[in-house]
Known about the structure:
This protein has 263 residues and is mostly helical. It has one domain. The chain is built from 10 helices and no strands.
Amino acid sequence: MVEMSRENMRSQEEMTGLKVIAHALRMVWRNRYEAIQIGLIPVALMIAASAVLRMHEGPLWSMAHAQSFEQVVLGAFASEEAFMLMLVWVFATIWFFVNWHRFILLGEYPKGWLPRLHRNEAIAYLIASARLFGLGAVVLFVLIFVTGVLGEALFNLFIFGVFALAFLLYRVSPVLPAAALGQKMGFGAALLATQGASLTILLVMVFRYASSRLLDTAVAGAADINGGLGLGVFMVLTFVLSLINVSILTTIYGHWVEGRPLD
Length: 263
């Protein structure tokens, strides 16, 4: 009976994970016009900053990979210009994400093509993002140090540690939508709220990884055909995946913190 109960719980959590992804995709599709209003200008800024950063490595038309957050941050220390571009990228991302969270969770519809700045909430979002980044940086430094001291034999342990770190960051990710809504939430409250969401988060992580690899492959394939086509595919898919990513964060907050249904 206990084994059957565990199997049922695992099956239900798998279904919840799939529902989270499906709900995020439906969220984007149902609100596609508002998504364009909210995200067009901020994502255009993100793409422009990412593209200029890529120009340090080669011609713009040869761009074959999307810029992840980690790539942008690491590339930001290459020069003062790169650092300024990273700040533009961060500003545009927060501008976009705060407005999307507030649209979905508070029903604040966009007015015109220039999203509101929500200065206080954007600052809170930046602080929450910095806390997440700081947590990740500390844990990653410890992992690198331990691997360096104990040798490459524990490299697999390092990979597992990175995976566990990503899992932890997803568990505490509700602090971001909370900041966008002007609410305070600590890591402890976020961990408490996402109890029982472990398998769901694992499925979301797999989906995020697969979608990023799909973006890389699609952009590289299109760029091999024509440079302009590659850039166009990169722009469209970056916009769509950014929407899906922020919608997943919004769905996690809405379901596990506010108790909203996924159906």
